[in-house]
Specification:
Two copies of one chain form a homodimer.
Chain A (H helix, E strand, L loop, with lengths): L10 E5 L8 H12 L4 E6 L1 H10 L7 E5 L10 H7 L4 H10 L5 E4 L3 H12 L9 E8 L2 E6 L9 H19 L5 E5 L10 H12 L3 E6 L11 E3 L2 H28 L3 H19 L7 E4 L4 E4 L6 H16 L2 H5 L2
Parallel strand pairs in A: 1-2, 1-4, 2-3, 4-11, 6-9, 7-8, 7-9
Antiparallel strand pairs in A: 5-6, 5-10, 10-11
Helix pairs in contact in A: 1-10, 3-5, 4-5, 6-7, 8-9
Amino acid sequence: MLKGIASKKTKIALDAMGGDHAPEEIVKGALAAVDDDIIDIILVGRENAVREELDKHNSTGRVLDIVHASEVIAMEERPVAAVKEKRESSIVVGIDLLKRGEVAAFVSAGNTGAVMTAATLMLGRTKGIHRPALGAVFPFPTGPLLCLDLGANADCKATSLVHFAKMGSIYMERIFGMGRPRIGLLSSGEEDTKGSQMVQKTHKMLRKSKLNFIGNVEGRDIASGRADVIVTDGFTGNVLLKLGEGLGEMLIGALRKAVAENPNLKEAAGLLEPTFHSVIGTLDYREYGGALLFGVNGNVIVAHGRSDADAIKNAIITAKREVSQDVAGAFRG
Amino acid sequence: MLKGIASKKTKIALDAMGGDHAPEEIVKGALAAVDDDIIDIILVGRENAVREELDKHNSTGRVLDIVHASEVIAMEERPVAAVKEKRESSIVVGIDLLKRGEVAAFVSAGNTGAVMTAATLMLGRTKGIHRPALGAVFPFPTGPLLCLDLGANADCKATSLVHFAKMGSIYMERIFGMGRPRIGLLSSGEEDTKGSQMVQKTHKMLRKSKLNFIGNVEGRDIASGRADVIVTDGFTGNVLLKLGEGLGEMLIGALRKAVAENPNLKEAAGLLEPTFHSVIGTLDYREYGGALLFGVNGNVIVAHGRSDADAIKNAIITAKREVSQDVAGAFRG
């Protein structure tokens, strides 16, 4: 089914049907990535729809393969049921390409739960890791920060958080060349005795580990640069992540209102726009590089549902980086 | 020990020794409040130190009593031990005044844990409420939002969250005159099935309650105006609260950096400063009105440790409002 020419470049599968702006923006992002000679891409989705998008652009001569997948898993579908029923969906077909070694990574802006479910069921968990986690690197002004779990597991055991910390440490070593990444445990206070029972237990286990554990960190430390990796349960991580997005929207709303009430502020707001944009963009990781699925046997990147072509290209860059540093392999030890 | 004249105005006790700027800013805040004829105040603390501060200002003729308390509980002390050992501390003496009916409320910018512990042990829990909670009203542009628990209980049972919802509903009815406050349950997704086991159980219980339960809300809804009350466990609430503070600091830092790199932006930043200040101030509730202790038999307000005179005055206004609407009484049914 593969129509492209074999290449020495990294090859990835991209879910052409996933996300609010699929397939248009997905195809545009893929074209931008191959134009920059980043990577070879297989677009996975309804062949006619994908080809139609490709035809809108001058894609002659560009190495973009299509693998047909007749079904689409919608954003609001229940992950487990959708993955089991829609075997011909772009997500299941894409993960299958990864499993069979046809590609080195899979990128999707589709239903996050479905991508996680398909990856876990089809690729299997990394040996020694009980629960996969969703993580993302936030490019704070103080340095990159990896946070996990951002929502794969609403209930976590202490053992899982220790696994997240180990994978996070390896990731920051590999991808950012850090010697001994500083691991922080998110809690409701810095003292060892603060936090839920589960967090207190995790604290003790991390103290005994060989990781560079710096102790508990608080919500404010997420932007303070104290840690290189912050681990938390998927419930707290998800709530935090979405709060960050909400606050970004609140800031934009407040600025718009100020300008509407006083047009003299328009110029000032325009001058400072790049600054606001960098702050807000920092809070919405999926806009710039996608989230990473830690603890499955393969490189899987989840981009934001509302990804535009730029966001898709950034997720592709993240995928390439993961592949080149063999992150998934490093987790296996 | 009371030296003031009896008054028909609401009388409250104010911890003169609590907070980073005690007693200076506390005394200044108290003077501002009595000057505005808001309330009668008893300053609780080391008499000499408090009197020295009062003497710096022209306090003749102002109704400000002092009740001596020889000890101080420091910010970093362990709450339970401190409350048990320091029976002459300003926190314990202040809560005792409230217990004996000498005052209608107690306000402190001191050790939050110690205030909660002293209030719970000395005043007792409200009948039917298992665990007191710390709540605060955020003045979002979309309307006031009450969030609780913000940190009193790191581990919560579903029953407690239902209690928080009931108290929150009564509070918003009483204080803001809302007919049927909309209650949201913080979760990692809007669907009923999202969230931890505890949150899913709470969801079912709230569905069966007589409250105006609107279902799960996400982190982004904190600033969206969808709910009037958002309930969560104290671990998540505390992490969120501190993230809000941290992001405010990040925004300020980004603006300072932008101005330092390009001085032409200084004027623009100055023009928009009130807008930034309103966004950041919204995130730090304790700066403007203090947090409320829900579920103890008495009106107790916790102000921010770094409160200045304005913040103290605002916490005093909050206390007066609670007293006038008899919030604590309403919780008892």
